[in-house]
Amino acid sequence: MEIGDEIDDEIIQSLPSGVALSWGIIKPSRRGPKGELSIKKIVDAAIDIADNDGLAAVSMSRVAQSLGYTTMSLYRYITSKEDLLVLMQDAVCAIPIPQEVPGKPWREEMGEYVWACVDVFRKHAWYGDIPITSVPLAPNNLQVIDWMLRIMRDFPLNDFEKMSFLLLVSSYARACGLIARDMDKAIRDGASPETFGGITYGAALKQLVKPDRFPHLHPILMAGAYTDEVENPIGNDLDFGLERILDGIAHYLREKG
Fold first, then answer.
1. How far is CA 17 from the centre of its chain?
2. Domain HTH tetR-type: where (predicted)?
3. Sequence spans of domains, the chain
4. Model confidence at 3, in pLDDT bands (50, 70, 90)?
5. What is the rounded CA–CA span in Å between residue 1 and residue 7?
6. What pLDDT is attached to residue 257?
7. 106-256: CATH homologous superfamily?
8. Which residue in 22, 183, 186, 187 is deepest, having the highest Cβ count within 10 Å?
9. What's domain 9-91's superfamily in CATH?
10. What band does 36 get if pLDDT is binned at 50, 70 and 90?
């Protein structure tokens, strides 16, 4: 969108420039010749570089080179690498939001939300490397937040309680996403799921972890639970953790009701 009469230009200028770009609020003087480039082409190229070579490989010059333009050509559209990172981050948050299904259990919907967020970390390993500097401000990220708030629409909660649950569930999704991302990378680099889970090192740890120094870890390690040497009766740890979080939310809702 362009800055229109309904938008207070002075207030909008308080936004970081990368965020303003993500909303389509662009000053005409920063555009290059018509048809030469576009913000989307630049962002897509940067994402492709980051997906293949990591976030550290992304630079304005590298992106320009990949597109066959000079670095100065890019600066007519995006004025800094920091702004480019904001746009990259928001672009990969453009995930499909499921249609609302009447009567669908909220726990199932929250599970879908969590695993959709995890998938972003797995598809774009660099995503979790961008530091969090504020609440989400860009439109695609806010659309994902709106999805989670839709799930809680009829909960007997005030706005702050809903936002706290949003933070709780989203933080768990982030933690799971980083673990899944790192496991994916380890396996691509030649590790096995067994190595990642520690079973390969179980025998060595049993010699090193002594009960006098690790009195609480030692019996769990010796039983084989720490390194998955025995059958896990609770199933997938990440699924189990999410279910316990949802149990806590359900308990709180019952107390509120």
1. 21
2. 36-96
3. 9-91, 106-256
4. very low
5. 11
6. 74
7. Tetracycline Repressor, domain 2 (1.10.357.10)
8. 22
9. Homeodomain-like (1.10.10.60)
10. confident
